[in-house]
Automatic annotation (TrEMBL):
Transmembrane segments: none annotated. This is Mss4-like protein. It comes from Rhodofomes roseus. Residues 34-156 form the CENP-V/GFA domain. It comes from the Eukaryota. PROSITE patterns: CENP_V_GFA. Belongs to the Gfa family.
């Protein structure tokens, strides 16, 4: 792109609302690493190789995600464990019991101990990776699916086609 300076690292700093372009192919054709930080900037994460060209986010409407995000849902993207790096700071883990988790699986959620920003979660349902909060990276990924849709409020409108609405452990919900 003419006039645009390439950087191998995309950085999104939510504390100052500044960012650099993400997922730009490097000179060798591979995707650039991307970085994002918590609200106060104490924790910085890197996703080696970025999210990828066709990456999508997942919206979760389960009650723990609603409460722990302080919102109607959590927006996450799956990243292979080997590609998620903590560049700065020490995230605080919260091990959620199986009894309090909607899927019945063990989930460990990581957050900033200073400002409370949710960072990522690890679950027995996907042991090879983590579900990172997309807000740390500018919320640039469109949603692919919504899970625990039956727990969404009746006035919420889906952001995905009906075939991409799921209740955990089951196929797509039918209209």
């Amino acid at each position: 792109m003419k006039g645009r300076q390439h950087t191998d690292i995309c950085r999104v700093d939510v504390s100052t609302a500044t960012s650099k372009p993400c997922n730009i192919p490097s000179s060798n054709g591979t995707m650039s690493d991307i970085e994002g930080s918590c609200h106060c900037g104490a924790i910085t994460l890197r996703i080696v190789g970025g999210f990828g060209d066709d990456a999508k986010s997942f919206i979760c409407h389960c009650e723990p995600c609603q409460v722990l995000s302080g919102s109607l849902f959590a927006c996450t993207a799956f990243v292979a464990s080997k590609n998620l790096q903590v560049v700065r700071g020490t995230p605080k883990p919260y091990k959620q019991s199986r009894e309090t988790n909607s899927s019945g699986m063990q989930v460990t959620r990581h957050f900033c101990g200073d400002c409370g920003t949710p960072l990522w979660g690890e679950s027995e349902v996907a042991p090879s990776g983590s579900f990172v909060r997309t807000a740390l990276f500018g919320n640039t990924l469109p949603p692919k699916a919504e899970v625990f849709w039956k727990r969404a409020h009746e006035w919420e409108k889906p952001m995905v086609p009906p075939g991409a609405l799921f209740e955990a452990g089951h196929g797509p919900l039918t209209a």
